[in-house]
Amino acid sequence: MADAGTAAPPRRLLPGLTRRNLVRELLAGVTLLAIAIPLNIGYAQIAGLPPTAGLYALVLPSILYALTVSSRQVVASPDAAAAALVASSVGGLAVSQGNYIALTLAQALIGGALFLLSAIFKLGFLANFLSKPILVGFVGGLALDILVSQVAKMLGVKIDSGGEFVDKLVGLIGGLSGVNVWSVLISAGSLLILLAGRRIARAVPWALIVLVLATIVVLLTGAESAGVSVLGKVEAGPPRLTWPVIDWGQWLAVIPSAIALTLVTMGEGLLVSRSYGERRGYATSPNRDLFAFGLGNLGAGVSGGFFVGASTSRTAAMDQAGSRTQLPSLVTAAGTLLLLVFGTALLEDIPSPVIGAIVAVAVVPLLGIPDFIRLWSLDRFEFAVGAVCFLGAVFIGPIAGIVIAFVLAVVNVTRRAANPPIDTLSSDGDPTHSLLDPADPGTLTAPGVVVIRLAAPLFFANSTAFGEAVTSAVTATGARQVVLDMEAVTDVDVTGAEAWESMRAFLSAREVGLALSRVRPGILDRLHQLGLDKGITVFDTNRAAIAALRTDADAR
Questions:
Q1: Which among 158, 257, 282, 546 could bridge 89 via Cys, Cβ 3.0 to 4.6 Å?
Q2: How far is CA 63 from the centre of its chain?
Q3: The pTM is what?
């Protein structure tokens, strides 16, 4: 079992790998290679980078990640959302293509450092602020932005793929009069094979098949001369160690986008890792996973790749293929390296429409339409959170979108915290929201006693609601004694202490006694520190409190 509190590498090089499953894992690696190459070429184009950047990201980053991560199945690679975020954040900062590449490398390096710091200081909990609606909305908005670019490729329409969503959409609509028939035919055929193939045999690498078939069609028909765009010359050779040469101002300029990428990857990556670990019965370590993402992105930054995250689609494909180790990622790294050294000439005639079709099929599920339908049926506020994040990512940009996402997360948490369950029991035996045993007639028999239970920490967000609950209960029942059930109170902040003092003043003015029951030891210390425990009786249980207060209540 892995220790969830450490960032150390696993004891075994590849946990889960045995002689019995070696062949299956190798075959899964070949499948992953066939899936990853066309997708990474497409994602590199989305990010505004040369195809080699997508291929480089499959070599050193994959090796570093696979050898250090706790998850046996999560595949690390650039994905569609990360590619779109890279393009939108770096595009406005770059003044030349060389400068653009250097900025994306710096972005990956900063992200890698942030991941390592998060692992060291155990900050994985920050991912919890990216709730399901936020992730669905944010990723869905990026997916729609990507989809417009890929539709343009499939139609042979030239647009500025690095522009804003509205500019892309306007460019696509305005360019419909110049649609290339050959591009449409190649795209239609590719989509037909991809969609039908997934229904027939999901394990078959249909993306690679359509890539090969479309390239053959272009070579045999001369479609390039008819206006079909092709990939063009791809630089040969393995990744080379490099370092981005940019000034300090540019390093600082990419920090916000690196933070956004880190947070999104953290939220999605840890969720995927935990879910597959629970499903397949092995332990995962969130902090070690962050450590692995850190090494992977540092590897991308020094080897010409770009930001690496968790690929949910490829992880699902490997799970369906029966893979339960990280060996497929190592096979993919080795296969990509061989392609870079000996086979880049094979990539030059790949038509852009087929890349657009492959990426579009991969991106459509990220729109999150079923998730939005489910959110609408379950919780309209959560649906609204997702919708705002979606629209923010589409219309005002991913960085602003992630800021909106966190603001909404804080608003959502505060909204819930400001209205905690406050259970009240009065001596007439009429429970408003009773948490005591209603079958026990001896629970409430003391006249003039009201029991109030706050099911949350007492802090700034709910201090007003707490004070109002106490005053309302005393006013409505004419109680002479209040018992606060403190079992669920785990903390009290300064604002909560002020509300407590106001409550004490209210009770004292009406000569109403105050007692506490089921108080946690740590809270007793906190109450003493804040000076809130003076003159208050503390009981171990509610029943003991009620029994002890009968005489006092009668005397009053």
A1: 257
A2: 23
A3: 0.76
- Secondary structure (3-state) at 175: coil
Residues 380 and 455 in one domain: no
272 Cβ contact list (under 8 Å, min separation 6): 71, 74, 310, 312, 315
What CATH number should be reported for the domain holding residue 434? 3.30.750.24
267 and 130 in contact (C-beta within 8 Å)?
A: yes
What range does the domain containing 548 cover?
A: 422-555
Question: Torsions phi, psi of 221, nearest 5?
Answer: -100, -10
- Buried-state track 291-300, b at ≥16 Cβ within 10 A, e below 16: bbbbbbbbbb
6 lies in some domain: no
Cβ-proximal residues to 229 (8 Å cutoff; 6+ apart), any chain: 153, 156, 183, 351, 352, 353
User: Could you tell me the two tokens for 546?
Assistant: 């009620």
pLDDT in tens, 127-185: 666 678 888 888 888 889 889 989 999 999 988 766 788 888 999 999 999 899 999 99
Q: Are residues 434 and 320 in the same domain?
A: no
Structure tokens at 20: 């019995």
Q: What is the pLDDT of residues 393-436, one digit of tens each?
A: 888 877 777 777 778 777 877 777 788 888 887 655 444 333 34
Same domain for 441 and 358: no
| Positive or negative torsion for Cα 240, 44, 296, 283 | negative
Angle between helices 286-303 and 60-68 (to 10 degrees): 160
405: in domain? yes
What is the pairing mode between strands 481-485 and 422-426? unpaired
* CA-atom Rg of the chain in angstroms: 30
Query: Which domain-ending residue is among 413, 431, 457?
Result: 413
Number of domains in the chain: 2
Position 428 in a domain: yes
DSSP state, residue 237: S
Q: What are phi and psi of 425, to 5 degrees?
A: -125, 125
Confidence of residue 299 (pLDDT cuts 50, 70, 90): very high
Nearest to 42 by CA among 32, 33, 55, 29: 55
Cα–Cα dist 14/70, whole Å: 10
Using the 3D structure, point to which of 368, 384, 413 is the last residue of a domain.
Answer: 413
Cβ neighbours of residue 398 closer than 8 Å, sequence gap 6 or more: 84, 85, 88, 89, 138, 141, 142, 257, 260
Domain annotation covers residue 337: yes
Do residue 487 and residue 389 come from a single domain? no
Q: Which amino acid belongs to residue 316?
A: A
Q: Domain check: are 349 and 451 in the same one?
A: no
Question: CA-CA distance, 488 to 484, in Å (whole number)?
Answer: 11
